[in-house]
Design brief:
single chain; 22 strands; 3 domains; alpha/beta; Rossmann fold; Pyruvate-ferredoxin Oxidoreductase, domain 3
């Protein structure tokens, strides 16, 4: 049998893909492998994609292990582990002449017969049965990989004890019995010379933790003072809701799963009126239902933060897939005119920091703030340094209401003194109609003009505080590749692989208001290209409206899967050759 070396020549990491049906525990293998690899000294990255079904089908997860940080999705597959048959085209098409496939012929039959020696039969099912339970086939596969990548069996023992020990010692013993059989399979592969792994471990870089996108958003919300979360389960936003439910007692957060998204937003507005710092988590279809409530927050001037995890539409679209097509929905949702702020983190660190900042700005300017992620981002995890935590408790920006208190008092910056019922002796009014300074309803045209102008003045403060886009690459580069949200690490890696010294990345983590600095950055560039995951170029359109700069070309995808590094590199190479030349 031919010896297979990983990583490949010219790469500094290993790309491992696992495929299995819903219910076969692919995500369990991902969770286990990522934690074991980190403990073994690797930098880790994992991203899962799955079909919209409870059982069957074919789901996959990609895991990259490196001696340096790895954060982007790649097409390259060094090792594919297939737990079931019927591998879908989006995975099969990525198998090349250097991919090694591990799988059980009992499950796969002759599906990979055409690969010859690059298909290695491994009896995962037999190992699970001999270990006592064929349900644990995924554990046999994970333990096999652990052995191949030089991870000690003691790490498996620690993992299962920590994960299941509080529930059942029998479950721990059952997993370990199968893990022993799987670990032996991996040792056999090494002895037979099927695989040779030569990947240096990362040098010590301080304490690091593994988070996924949902956890980063949820932790950022907690750091921002979130004490109330509401939502209706809707992929891919549910992870934030479930994380806060699991940790509600620990952090003192009230979490309410409601009957629909209309109730979720109205409940958040009501909680904000009473002094809470609320979070709504939803996806595009749910956010559409929240539109009227968002407008209510706009006229009541109650701080509300919304986590909008994007997926393909229209309507139900592709419920478990990814897209960046809700930028305009978030920007223009809610009838009438009122200020708002939109963030679109590109890294887990940004998700933590920007969600926290969303709460800060929402409280200070008494207006909605929206954090845009997507399915790819929420289901991606990697190791990061421990984030810096704020030294002080979040400022709720409240004043005590005295006898002369007027909730909607005129002010130069448009921000009125905000109190809540019970905090002082004054009456804290609120209304969904246009109102005067005390929240009394009047149909007065001069009042309407004055009150709406005051609310809109807050936008100037939000613009002054807008975060400028992040530039990655040479300061004197005359070619800018622009991206927003989750595509940042992918675009960074793709641009670096092009080897063009005159090209830099400009990433927008705040997409509204656009920071004033952006106009000058775009004006200095000779060429501007925009990479985004939608069909109509929503960020490119917004930048043209705000800065007057038209993109020279765009690279877009809207198939329901995230860009890969190779896909972005090919797209950029094409538009660069056509526009700039070699």
């Amino acid at each position: 049998m031919r010896l297979v070396n990983v990583p490949r020549r010219g790469t500094s990491d290993i790309s491992l893909v696992l495929c299995g049906a819903a219910g076969q525990g692919v995500q369990t293998v991902e969770h286990l492998m990522v934690r074991l690899a980190k403990a073994a000294g690797y930098h880790v990255f994992a991203s899962s994609e799955y079909m919209s079904r409870v059982r069957g089908g074919s789901n996959s997860t990609e895991i990259r292990l490196g001696s340096v940080p790895v954060r982007g999705l790649v097409d390259r597959i060094d090792v594919l582990v297939a737990l079931n048959g019927g591998i879908r085209p989006n995975i099969r098409d990525r198998i090349d002449e250097e991919t090694l496939v591990l799988g059980d012929p009992e499950e796969l039959g002759d599906e990979f017969a055409s690969l010859g020696e690059r298909f290695v039969p491994v009896p995962f099912l037999r190992a699970a049965r001999e270990g006592g339970n064929r349900v644990y086939t995924n554990v046999a596969a994970a333990a096999c990989l652990a052995a191949v990548f030089g991870m000690p069996f003691a790490a498996l023992e620690t993992y299962f004890a920590e994960r299941f020990g509080a529930k059942s010692l029998d479950v721990v013993k059952g997993n370990l019995a199968v893990a022993e059989k799987g670990f032996a399979l991996g040792g056999d592969l090494l002895r037979r010379g099927v695989l040779r792994v030569s990947l240096g471990h990362a040098s010590p870089q301080g304490e690091r933790i593994v988070l996924d996108g949902s956890e980063a958003v949820a932790l950022g919300a907690l750091a921002g003072g979130c004490d109330f979360c509401t939502g209706y389960p809707m992929s891919p936003a549910t992870g934030v809701l479930t994380f806060l439910v699991k940790n509600a007692d620990r952090f003192g957060v009230a979490v309410e799963q409601v009957e629909d998204e209309i109730a979720a937003m109205n409940m958040a507005v009501g909680a904000s009126y009473m002094g809470a710092l609320p979070l709504c988590t939803t996806s595009g279809g749910g956010f559409a239902l929240m539109s009227e409530g968002l407008s209510l927050a706009g006229i009541m001037e109650t701080p509300v933060v919304v986590h909008l995890a994007q997926r393909p539409g229209p309507a139900t679209g592709m419920a478990t897939r990814t897209e960046q097509a809700d930028l305009e929905l978030a920007l223009y949702s809610g009838h009438g005119e009122f200020p708002r702020v939109l963030f679109a983190p590109g890294t887990l660190e940004e998700a933590f920091f920007l969600t926290r900042r969303a709460f800060e700005l929402a409280a200070r300017y008494q207006t909605p703030a929206i954090v845009l992620t997507d399915q790819y981002f929420t289901n991606t995890s990697y190791d990061i340094p421990l984030p810096d935590l704020p030294d002080a408790a979040p400022d709720r920006c409240l004043v005590e209401a005295g006898p002369e208190y007027r909730r909607y008092e005129e002010s130069p910056d448009g921000v009125s003194p905000r109190s809540v019922p019970g905090f002082g002796t004054g009456l804290v009014g609120a209304d969904s109609h246009e109102h005067d300074e005390e929240a009394h309803v009047y149909e007065d045209f001069d009042l309407r003009t004055r009150m709406n102008a005051r609310r809109l003045r807050k936008f100037e403060g939000l613009r002054r505080e807008a975060l400028p886009p992040t530039r990655i690459g040479p300061e004197d580069a005359d070619i800018l590749v622009i991206c927003w949200g989750s595509t940042r690490p992918i675009v960074e890696e793709a641009v670096a692989s092009l080897g063009r010294t005159n090209t830099a990345v400009l990433h927008f983590a705040q997409v509204w208001p656009i920071a004033p600095e952006a106009e000058a950055l775009l004006a200095r560039a000779k060429y501007v290209f925009v990479v985004e995951g939608n069909a109509t170029g929503q960020l490119a359109t917004l930048l043209r409206c705000e800065t007057g700069r038209r993109a020279d070309a765009s690279v877009r995808t809207w198939k329901g899967l995230q860009f890969s590094v190779e896909e972005v590199r090919r797209g950029l190479a094409d538009v660069l050759d056509k526009t700039v030349g070699r």
